[in-house]
Design brief:
This protein is α+β, with helices and mostly antiparallel strands. The chain has 17 helices and 17 strands. It has a 6-stranded mixed sheet, with helices on both faces. Strands 7-8-6-9-10 form a 5-stranded antiparallel sheet. It has a two-stranded antiparallel sheet with strand order 1-12.
């Protein structure tokens, strides 16, 4: 469900200085629907209360060296802008727009309207084109797509209000998702994979129902994710609650309520306060649907080992905070106009949208590295994928590949990656519990029967740092040492390595690598002897495929 709002700031693509002048849309004048688009373009800055709210309350204002409001670029002519406008993305390099690129983008937009007419479907395509074009020269972290949606939604809800009713405006941004026991509350875990499949089937049906249920609120669905964003004024909030309650769907909602107050003797608004809440609607453990075979279930049936790959963020607000801090570090020094005790609502929307794009990019780049993950669940807070393994050793390749993909994408926000490797018959509640218990950072977790080994990044790195040191060694030697490592102390293992080296069973490079690995793992594990033995054994087993055969 895309953004069908009329793109009222569309002309910023072509002429930042004169973005309300209709002469630049002359080619569209004869098309049906032109009048509505023209009115939005030419009158929004004067007539829309929502645009006046956005002008001051939807962004953080920075000051320059002369204590004036800082702009990251300025128009220098009818079409020229210096330096080039840019969009600071949630991940990767910022997207810059030179004049040639801007003109090409504008031509594509005009072409969409000429080909399909001026209607909601065309608006949706145009807004998608604007998903990485900046809305404001003072705060280049929000796209025109996001701004068009948020401003239009509030405008449709505020336009009938009397002037005296607009001195104070309350609006709530909801992040709504289908409730998932075991992911939202620890005590309601899935004890059977069948229950999980039933939930996913329910989620699919509920997502369709939500699309119809929330249609009047112009919801924004995060691409291929379970969440829907809804922005409502105080009056519409009660109507939304009513519809959610009547639906009896298992809904979980995170809400950010902003109070906008009109500044004295001015047309614009400031944020008075913000409240952060959570709501549940129709929550139940009962699943009244038949579980269908998901496209990832065959992975559980066709492999001896499976890997559950999860990615977690700290939450929408916390992610947005980290993102803005990254922006301020990159463009330091930046001085905020006033102390900011809350984050702009348009930034929260932009971050949510950016994360859904990040997940899409992660999947695409993983496939390019021959890592085809089966999607189980995609959401802002928690995403889960499944991958089949021939044996445990492939877990290190999978984990390292996923880490490298994330590193290449350059996320400007905190993200925890974990991979749980287990027998396909491991109870699903145990998988979720393991992921939940990883306190911080990334981890590779390997189940061996009832035992679980958690390998931090430092241990995984040892495999890829030293794997080429064993090109002249026999696989049998490494295999035997891996088995011994699980049973003996560090000192005994070091003596075993010294003995084999003295007998010329190990090469110089292999010997040096083994000493380094054993020593480093001991430091990683502190005084935990059992953990040291298990991790040392697992690392040596992972190195085996890189050692030559006899």
């Amino acid at each position: 469900m895309g953004v069908k709002a009329p793109p009222h700031d569309i002309l910023k693509v072509l002429t930042w200085k004169r973005h309300t002048k209709l002469k630049y849309l002359e080619e569209l004048r004869s098309l049906e629907g032109y009048e509505e688009l023209a009115e939005a373009v030419s009158k929004h800055h004067r007539a829309w209360v929502s645009d006046k709210i956005a002008a001051s309350a939807a962004r953080i204002i920075y000051m320059d060296e002369e204590n004036k409001v800082k702009s990251f670029w300025k128009p220098t002519g009818e079409f020229e802008i210096e330096p080039n406008p840019f969009f600071f993305r949630l991940y990767g390099e910022r997207k810059e727009w030179n004049l040639e690129e801007r003109k090409k983008l504008f031509e594509r937009i005009i072409g969409i309207y000429k080909e399909n007419g001026i209607n909601e479907e065309s608006h949706e395509r145009v807004n998608e084109e604007l998903s990485e074009y900046p809305q404001d020269s003072r705060f280049p972290l929000v796209s025109l797509k996001t701004h068009h949606w948020a401003t239009w939604v509030l405008h449709t809800q505020l336009k009938e209000k009397r002037k005296e009713e607009l001195n104070e405006v309350k609006a709530t941004l909801f992040k709504i998702s289908v409730y998932a026991p075991g992911l939202r509350e620890r005590e309601l875990g899935f004890h059977r994979l069948r229950d999980w499949r039933k939930f996913l089937r329910l989620k699919e049906q509920a997502s369709v129902a939500l699309s119809y249920l929330l249609g009047d609120f112009h919801p924004l669905r995060l691409k291929d994710c379970e969440e829907v964003l809804v922005l409502v004024t105080e009056r519409k909030r009660e109507e939304l609650f009513r519809k959610l309650l009547e639906s009896n769907l298992p809904i979980f909602a995170e809400a950010f309520t902003f109070r906008f107050v009109k500044e004295e003797n001015k047309e614009y608004y400031k944020v008075g306060e913000v409240h952060h809440d959570y709501f549940g609607f129709g929550i139940s453990e009962q699943f009244e649907v038949a579980p269908e075979k998901a496209n990832w279930v065959h992975v559980l049936e066709g492999f001896e080992r499976v890997a559950w790959l999860s990615m977690r963020t700290p939450g929408l607000y916390e992610t947005a905070e980290a993102f803005i801090e990254e922006f301020e570090r990159e463009f330091a020094p930046l001085q905020r106009k006033r102390e900011v005790k809350w984050l702009p609502y348009e930034l929260l929307i932009s971050v949510a949208e950016g994360f859904s794009s990040f997940l899409e990019a992660f999947e695409k780049r993983s496939r390019s590295k021959r890592l085809t993950l089966r999607k189980v669940l995609k959401s802002f807070d928690f995403s889960l994928y499944l991958y089949g393994l021939k044996d445990e050793k492939g877990a290190f390749w999978l984990y390292n590949t996923a880490r490298n993909v994330i590193k290449e994408l350059q996320p400007h926000f905190p993200l925890n990656l974990s991979v749980v490797v287990a027998d396909p018959k491991l109870p699903f509640w145990k998988v979720l519990e393991t992921i939940e218990n990883i306190k911080k950072g990334n981890a590779l977790c390997i189940f061996r029967g009832d035992k679980m080994i958690e390998l931090p990044d430092e241990a995984v790195d040892l495999v890829f740092k030293y794997r080429n040191n064993f090109e002249r060694d026999a696989r049998k030697q490494v295999h035997t040492l891996a088995r011994i490592a699980r049973k003996v102390s560090k000192k005994q293992l070091e003596l075993e390595i010294e003995m084999r080296y003295a007998e010329r069973k190990l090469s110089d490079d292999g010997y040096d690598a083994l000493k380094a690995i054993v020593s480093r793992i001991a430091r990683i594990c502190g005084g935990n002897e059992e953990k040291r033995r298990e991790i040392t054994s697992a690392v040596l087993e992972a190195i085996e495929p890189f050692v030559r055969r006899e």
